[in-house]
Amino acid sequence: MIRRARSGPAGAAAATACALAPLAAHADTLDSGDTAWMLTATALVLLMTLPGVALFYGGLVRSRNVLSVTMQCMGIAALATVLWTAYGYSLAFGDGGWFAGGLDKAFFAGVDRSALEGTIPESVFAAFQLTFAIITPALVFGGVAERLRFSTMLWFSGLWLTLVYFPVAHWVWGGGWLAKLGVLDYAGGTVVHVNAGVAALTAALVMGRRRGFPATPMPPHNLVFTIAGACLLWVGWFGFNAGSALAANGDAGMALLTTQVAAAGSALAWMVSEWVKFGRPSALGVATGIVAGLVAITPAAGFVGPAGALIIGVAGGVACFWATFVVKRRLAIDDSLDVFSVHGIGGFVGALLTGALAGSLGGTGYSYGLNVLTQLGVQFIGVTSTVIWCALVSWLLLRVLDMALGLRVDEDQESQGLDLTEHGETGYNS
User: Fold this and answer.
1) Considering the entire predicted model, what is its pTM?
2) Which of 97, 137, 148, 381 is most buried, most CB within 10 Å of its CB?
3) What confidence score (pLDDT) does residue 281 get?
4) Signed CA dihedral, 290, 259, 50, 100: sign only
């Protein structure tokens, strides 16, 4: 069956008049190679949340909160899946207007074994996109780690996905107003990372600091967990970016290569920045630098070549390093696990550099002929509109939930740790 071209990650450039036609991803014949790759990519992206983010964040918090982070990731994975099934996929990718899709795909109506999305089953496309919806709110709560009620976290996640993530995904990938404007976001620099970073910063400002911050040292309790999580994220990100080609082809190969190059460039840039600022590099810094580079290349992965990826990776690493310093030390904002500094700033830098570098320096050819200044303006509109909508809705949701349920645990619960007070368990018995 023939399906219309969709403005998902692989088709983001199709919304731009200057873009070349996106590969043969919208044929009407199932391709077993493309399908096999997308099944693998879907598993890789889910691996990024469970156990990637769970380990990365779990190692960064204090030992009395390690299980709470894992519970958040598992709870969000379950909740997001149910909401995606009920209406999320339809709001993001169903037929609709400028703001959101309709409910024609609610409960996956029409998504049967014969339904295709390009050369892959639509069921695989829907499952792949679900993994993006899972990881985005899981990233948010690193900004308010060690003080947020679990029940409130679930309510916020469900409402935030409905009012922020699903509409923004439609804006950019589902044929909404930013797709029509020509915003380029290959795999989620704006939809996932800017969204998550802004929501995390908003939550940190509304909830306030952890008790004792910044006077009391709050070092990571298990850096081995964090480094293992970063390595899982690095590997899983190949599914995140290369999978967004929606096919096993040269565009997927280029996205995989640029992902590797940017991560490496950012890791080295962060390492050097630490060396200059503090006199020695740290394992935590390199792990964070890897993630910063992965975030920065996400919007550009299929639109630039290796040289462009190196520029984006280095710029992302340096920008995110200094952002963590400014947010935590200069502004004393308790973004617990640097979500805004890494994901928000990294996504912003990557989105703008996508406009500057797309189609140049060995790009894949989607965007040859783009006017750089015009595309930079389009990218800026895409990012700022996402920032404004996300910040406004997140702030309103947090205020309403604070009045209805309460956002944070009390002082005694925070001192004992969320593992024990929220879940009745401890991560370590010794």
Assistant:
1) 0.92
2) 137
3) 95
4) positive
